[in-house]
Amino acid sequence: MAAAIQDYQRSELDRLNEVKGHLEIALLEKHFLQEELRKLREETNVDTLKQELEKERGKRLDLEQKMTEVLKTRLEDSPPQPPRKQQQSPSANEAEKQKETVYTRMQKWLYDRFGVYIEDFRFQPEETTVEAEEPLSAKRLTENMRRLKRGARPVTNFMRNLSALSNWHSVYTSAIAFIIYMNAAWHGWAIPMFLFLAILRLSLNYLIARGWRIQWSIVPEVTEPEEPPKEDLTVSEKFQLVLDVAQKAQNLFGKMADVLEKIKNLFMWVQPEITQKLYIALWVAFISSCVLPYKLMGFMIGLYAGIKFFIIDFIFKSCPKLRDKYDTPYIVWNSLPTDPQLKERTNATVSRRLSAAEKVGTQVQPVVSRSSLATVPCGVSREEESSRPHNPKKGAFHEIFCLPENERPLPVCENGWRCCLINRDRKMPTDYIRNGVLYVTENYLCFESSSSRSGSSKKNKVIKLDEITDIQKYKVLSVLPGSGMGISIATPSTQKPLVFGAMIHRDEAFEAIFTQYMKIMTTASPDT
């Protein structure tokens, strides 16, 4: 009997997962249909442009026809000379006709040859070509991912070989490469050596394209077995494939954004002590290039590059502590902040200022009001705080939620977090989702519904923190990028977790609620 119940529960869970997959696919399809509708609306402008283009083409044809008619009329309107025609012999008439035909042929040839280029100098409306985008396909997606891997394989192999040379993976190969490079740099043959290596690489590629099996690498290549593409994918497999690709794209874009933000912050003097080093180095390089001869400059740069690549980098990679202390480029690059790190630093600075302002006490209270910096939580600016709703019933907070008088909102949420409560146990639309403000006190989590501010407080929700069985960050729509804007809270009195979604300050609210929840649980555990 228990096994049958477990099988039934598993089948029900599979059905629910399938329904969830269908709903997520429906959301995707809705997004795609909206995009197609937008494109169809924009195509009306394309039609008007096509009509104008056809008009211009018609005008051009009319001009060409008029030009041909003018040429014909000029030939026909030549001054009549009947007496001379009577006196001229037939051979002269034939010569004149032949001359006229040669002239017209020359004009026609010149027009056919250069008339198209002359038309380019006239004003013509630009043709806007709309590229047709392919619809989302799981098969096409996997194929593009494999193409990307195959295309990036030569670059990754080249970088792995360079890293192996620098790490002395093969002692004999690295020693030979070091001796050859230093000899070339000493005699000023570094650039011819690199050009010769490029020619050698192209020659080897030519032989490989001809069918020769030539494979040389310092690091042995690892060939990953390619799985045959599946023809028919289920809905859940397609959606999981989309999520995997989105995760890889998110990580790749994050790394690219970190590199670009560090370069931007380096040149924008965000860290003055770091940019100052680059500034001094550029001045030294500029003065050296003006004073020293270029041959000596190339010799010095070549020797430094060889010693840095083959010896210094090997020592620093073998001794990380030495690298962290003396490798200047490595230290400068790691100390460059990204934009999220800068934001965290400013938030930490604001929090320190707030803590210092709280220590001042009564001397600052008459000057700083409750809605000013003293009530701004960590990570929130004054402009963001001013956009939050101000509850006029702060004095009667315990009466709104029927709580003891000592229960007050924590300083971090004195004005609350605007959000919407999604009660998945309810089926009526009015009870399923409600808009309001979320507060956290020392012992309770309170949600004040917007519809209850003018009337009864039946739609408000009060949850004891010690009754919460699970709290985690939640994303209402899993198809959307990012980590979402919701918090999921499970209690014994609810079958499905309550979701507080559409919360702009979600991370701040989650940290405050989770910290207070852990504080309550740790104080309650010794008592039990």
How would you portray this structure in words?
Strands 4-3-2-1-7-6-5 form a 7-stranded antiparallel β-sheet. 62% of the residues lie in helices and 7% in strands. The chain has 528 residues and is α+β, with helices and mostly antiparallel strands. Helix 4 crosses helix 7 (235-267), helix 5 (171-186) packs antiparallel against helix 9 and helix 9 (294-318) packs across helix 10. The chain is extended and about 120 Å long. The longest helix has 75 residues, at 2-76.
Notable features of this structure?
528 residues, alpha+beta, seven-stranded antiparallel sheet, 7 strands, 62% helix
Unreliable residue stretches:
81-88, 362-394
Query: What letter string, H or E per element, gives the SSE order?
Result: HHHHHHHHHHHHHHEHEEEEEEH
Q: What Rg do the Cα atoms give?
A: 38 Å
Structural class comes to: alpha+beta
Which percent band covers the strand fraction?
5-15%
Placed side by side, the strands forming the largest sheet appear as 4-3-2-1-7-6-5
The best one-word shape is: extended
**Fraction of helical residues:** 55-70%
- What is the number of helices? 16
Largest sheet: number of strands, sense, barrel closure:
7 strands, antiparallel
Total E-strand runs: 7
Q: Distance between termini? A: 37 Å
Short description:
The chain has 528 residues and is an alpha+beta fold. It has helices at 2-76, 82-87, 90-120, 138-166, 171-186, 190-209, 235-267, 272-291, 294-318, 320-326, 328-335, 339-360, 382-386, 397-400, 429-432, 506-527, and strands spanning 417-422, 433-440, 444-449, 461-464, 470-474, 486-490, 498-501.
